[in-house]
């Protein structure tokens, strides 16, 4: 545990400590992309980051602790939501961001490694769930605004609408194969917007 009782690596000091953290997390990304979670080693990460091995072990403790901090850092650095003034436009912006992230050679490889790790490691799975929870919470307000404008019925589950946008993209990315192109992103956003307007994500008894 960290000195403040939180997860290892969750303290946010500045100066040299912040620089060491940034270097270590970058090195952890490189190692994950190259070797996957099974090949991740704190000593190797320390070497790549040109950081003291003792520092890395003391601050993060375990590989799972390091990955949890990496996911938290990724959530903090993620692009904020875009609001265009329409549900269709907002969901299209979300779909484009997801597509661009997954299609990026480095980011796509990193997410594949993290998702694979989460399938077999409980703490990493919990960290990945927190990451996506943060991103969904960032974008859910665009659906809530759409409800206020009358573009979707009252009671619409904003989080489910956002999940519906990215689900086809992740399926193509992880399972389906084929290009992660703009057409797919546009279609995913449009399908989610049409379903939201039709009340698919609202309680059945919503007027």
List the helices and strands and how they pair.
Blueprint: H1 15-35, H2 42-49, H3 53-60, H4 63-77, H5 87-103, H6 105-118, H7 122-148, H8 158-176, H9 182-197
Walk me through what this model shows:
- This protein folds into two domains: 15-65, Homeodomain-like (Arc Repressor Mutant, subunit A, Orthogonal Bundle); 78-197, Tetracycline Repressor, domain 2 (Orthogonal Bundle), CATH 1.10.357.10.
- The chain is mainly α and 207 residues long.
- Residues 1-11 have low confidence and may be disordered.
- It is elongated, with a radius of gyration of 19 Å.
- It is 70% helix and 0% strand.
Number of spatially distinct domains? 2
- CATH homologous superfamily name of the largest domain? Tetracycline Repressor, domain 2
Radius of gyration: 19 Å
In the predicted model, the low-confidence regions spanning at least 5 consecutive residues are 1-11
The number of helical elements comes to: 9
CATH architecture of the largest domain: Orthogonal Bundle
Oligomerization state = single chain
Tell me about the biggest sheet? none
Find the structural class using helix and strand composition.
mainly alpha
Task: Look at the structure and give the CATH class of the largest domain.
Answer: Mainly Alpha
| Strands, count | 0
- Note the run of SSEs as H and E: HHHHHHHHH
Morphology call: elongated
Helix content: over 70%
- How far apart the termini lie comes to 50 Å
- What is the mean pLDDT? 91
Share of residues in strands: under 5%
CATH fold group of the largest domain: Tetracycline Repressor, domain 2
């Amino acid at each position: 545990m960290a000195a403040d009782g939180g997860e290892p690596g969750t303290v946010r000091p500045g100066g040299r400590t912040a620089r060491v953290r940034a270097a270590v997390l970058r090195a952890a990304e490189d190692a994950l992309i190259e070797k996957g979670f099974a090949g991740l080693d704190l000593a190797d990460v320390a070497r790549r980051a040109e950081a003291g091995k003792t520092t890395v072990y003391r601050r993060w403790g375990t590989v799972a602790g390091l990955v949890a901090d990496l996911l938290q850092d990724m959530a903090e650095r993620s692009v904020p939501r875009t609001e265009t003034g329409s549900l269709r436009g907002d969901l299209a912006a979300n779909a484009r961001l997801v597509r661009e992230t997954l299609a990026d050679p480095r980011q796509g490889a990193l997410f594949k490694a993290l998702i694979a790790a989460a399938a077999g490691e409980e703490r990493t799975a919990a960290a990945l769930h927190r990451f996506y929870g943060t991103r969904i919470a960032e974008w859910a307000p665009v659906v809530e605004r759409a409800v206020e404008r009358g573009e979707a019925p009252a009671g619409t589950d904003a989080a489910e609408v956002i999940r519906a946008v990215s689900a086809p993209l992740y399926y193509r990315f992880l399972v389906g194969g084929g290009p992660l192109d703009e057409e797919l992103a546009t279609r995913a956003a449009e399908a989610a917007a049409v379903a939201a307007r039709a009340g698919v994500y609202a309680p059945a008894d919503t007027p």
